[in-house]
Specification:
There is one protein chain. This protein is of the alpha/beta class. It contains 9 helices and 15 strands. It has a 7-stranded parallel sheet, sandwiched between helices. The protein has a 3-stranded antiparallel sheet with strand order 1-3-2. α2 packs across α3.
Length: 261
């Protein structure tokens, strides 16, 4: 792709998405980190984009940075690699559940080549990015939009029970804390019933967390470690978590973090 055309497409892509990580631009335009940095620096100097932690955003956006935007920027490279690995477990024809969260929401970035995948989700970030992807059928279950987490949260337990209307084989879950004692936890009470139902209903359960979640204790547990079939993370978990999961036959995958170029 001619550089001038690529730069214009990068500018449009960022404008359409609000803010993106450098890794996402590398993936989208099939270019190296050095190349994307040069392109982005030129757009920043021209006033077309502004730098944010871990990536860039459009200067035309009038919306203030939300707490979700801030979480998206934290451990951005690690989250991208975790999402990429998770997407490898989604096969053509699969029906899956994708949880809310800044890591799970990135799975959609790596599903462009999958065929006939049905996704049940309350993750608004995932939903918006999936709009142009005709290979994905997206089923959204009802709730109240929580802009802090960019997801629809439950009105009551009946909303969570709606998940039982859908047969999904795999569930891709997020957590705000993981310990041996309390298992996988979440800080948003209205989401807990969703997560617990997805864990119960799925045949395969994948937990996607970066290393900052290990040892953190938050308000509500939604499953035990033994309920998780596969943990995908960016660093080896503490020994007690690793031991407990391996004793239960669970798999731990540590992704390789991309090195800055």
């Amino acid at each position: 792709m001619v550089r001038e055309k690529r730069i214009e497409e990068i500018k449009k892509y960022v404008a359409d998405n609000g803010s993106v990580s450098l890794d996402e631009l590398c993936e989208k335009f099939d270019i190296s980190k050095n190349t994307v940095r040069r392109d982005v620096d030129g757009l920043v100097k021209a006033g077309a984009l502004k730098k944010v932690y871990g990536g860039v955003s459009s200067v035309s956006s009038s919306l203030p940075e939300s707490s979700y935007d801030a979480r998206m920027a934290l451990e951005s490279d690690a989250k991208a690699q975790i999402a990429r690995k998770a997407a490898e477990f989604i096969e053509d024809g699969d029906s899956v559940f994708v949880d809310s969260g800044s890591t799970t929401g990135r799975i959609v970035d790596y599903l462009h080549d999958k065929k006939n995948v049905t996704v049940v989700t309350n993750n608004l970030d995932f939903i918006m990015k999936a709009v142009p992807l005709n290979n994905l059928k997206v089923i959204v279950f009802s709730g109240i939009l929580d802009r802090d987490i960019m997801a629809f949260t439950g009105i009551d337990d009946q909303t969570a029970r709606m998940l039982r209307n859908f047969n999904f084989k795999k569930a891709f879950l997020s957590a705000t804390g993981v310990t041996v004692e309390f298992g996988a936890m979440n800080s948003i009470l209205s989401e807990t019933a969703y997560k617990s139902t997805a864990v119960e209903w799925a045949k395969e359960r994948y937990l996607l967390v970066d290393k900052t979640k290990f040892g953190s204790v938050t308000i509500k547990s939604f499953c035990r470690l033994e309920d998780i079939d596969c943990l995908i993370t960016d660093a080896a978990p503490p020994e007690d978590i690793s031991r407990a999961m391996k004793e239960n036959g669970s798999r731990i995958i540590e992704v390789e973090r991309q090195q800055a170029q």
